[in-house]
Amino acid sequence: MLFHVHMTVNIPLDLDKDYVDDLKAKEKALSQDLQRQGKWTHIWRIAGKYANISIFNVASAGELHDILMSLPLYPFMDVEVTALCQHYSSVKNEEEAH
């Protein structure tokens, strides 16, 4: 199943810098591992914001939930999830039209 996930991270300014740096390093390592597994296939950083738009390719909504909950920065995230469906292009080739 494919999911479009928009994540905006809102880290409180009063959090300890070393703690935040540790969370960011763990988040990066986990996201890279998920990318290598083909589960977090595309990441786009939104310019000027600590936010990204991602496509997750997972077996189920439950697996996506577990992944998102495991992200070190999840407690500071606003997350919007949209399920995507795979479909044929709206432009059909001539063989399909006959």
Automatic annotation (TrEMBL):
Its EC number is 5.3.3.4. It holds the Pfam family MIase. Signal peptide: none annotated. Keywords: Aromatic hydrocarbons catabolism, Isomerase. InterPro entries: Dimeric_a/b-barrel, MLI_dom, Muconolactone_d_Isoase. The keyword Isomerase applies. Belongs to the muconolactone Delta-isomerase family. This is Muconolactone Delta-isomerase. It comes from Pontibacter burrus. The lineage of its organism: Bacteria, Pseudomonadati, Bacteroidota, Cytophagia, Cytophagales.
